[in-house]
Specification:
Strand content: 5-15%
Strand order of the largest sheet: 1-6
Number of strands: 8
Shape: extended
Largest sheet: 2 strands, antiparallel
Structural class: alpha+beta
Number of domains: 4
Number of helices: 11
Order of helices and strands: HHHHHHHHHEEEEEEEEHH
Radius of gyration: 27 Å
Amino acid sequence: MVTIDWKKLRTEWEASDISLKGLAEKYGIKATTVRSRKNREKWQRNATQSVATKRPVAEEVKRVMENPDLTDKQKLFCLYYSRSFNATRSYQKAYDVSYVSACASGPRLMGNKKIKAEIARLKEQRYSRALLSPEDVFQKFMDIAFADVTDYVEFGQEEVQVIGRLGGIEKTDEKTGEKVPVTETVNVVKFKESADVDGTIIGEVKQGRGGASIRLADRMRALSWLADHMHFATEEQRARVDKIKTETEFTKEKTKLIKGEERDLTLLKELLRVDE
């Protein structure tokens, strides 16, 4: 097993303009592992690089605000959308309307050719500045949309000893006469080690009175984004998305069929008055 010098990797990333993907490829590590480590340890570029990134952002805003083909509110919408990829929220902020109104108007505005062209240009600039390719961003949304909760937690049932006020409860075995613990079956949920999961897909981890809980990033939002940006996908990514969509549709149809059979069987029993 190859030992990774994470201190060296962090220093190299913070002192240079290499992307996380480039760093991962250089050292033969999964990009998701590097991203998880970066987020967990809060890696940051040096101050000089941080200042340098402000200029492209200012130029980006200036370029949008000078676009003669858009109204002022359309310009704001484009800027908001390029940061959130959420048409409804972007419309709500730009036009100062209710969420209900934005739900209908936001997606409709995305059909405007001038709006689409400006947003596409903003995205390309952002990818270049972050040293990310559109395929990298598409992959991240795929990771979110198709994340499996079993990648983060293990759950099942276990036999545990019943605990009373004085400790573990025991009973006498009728065959041997020995004391044996009284057990019960309980549901168990166990988190996996943080070093073994992709922390960038986790939206929240919290500890409350009812125990610890984990919430993954918004899958429906990611699926919506994927549907709107299939042109960014590689052939391999397209094939995987198509395969998952096909499997999802099959599962839905199978569920409908099973429910239909259950309804038919219930109706048949009622007609024949057959007891279950």
